[in-house]
Design brief:
Strand content: under 5%
Radius of gyration: 14 Å
Structural class: mainly alpha
Length: 83
């Protein structure tokens, strides 16, 4: 992901949607995406709500602010945070 730009990450995520659905059917659970929409291709069906995001941050499962982390920034991972 660090070497991908935002458009490449959106394209990759869109391509993974069928796999996410298969995993959810087989194992249960949920997929939470930080990508708010797919641009011209519409809304992201797995977009995380603010409430769920904050819940996961409070549980220390989700990064609070990747853009504030110098190590993630230097790796190129947080360039479009949170999208």
């Amino acid at each position: 992901p660090g070497a991908m730009d935002k458009n490449e990450r959106v394209k990759f995520e869109r391509r993974m949607l069928p796999a996410f659905e298969q995993l959810k059917e087989k194992y249960g659970g949920d997929v939470y995406s930080l990508t708010p929409n797919f641009g011209d291709d519409g809304a992201n069906p797995n977009s995380i709500t603010d409430e769920k995001y904050n819940e996961l941050v409070d549980a220390h499962v989700m990064f609070k602010d990747m853009a504030a982390d110098p190590y993630l920034n230097s790796a190129g991972i947080s360039g479009d945070w949170p999208h």
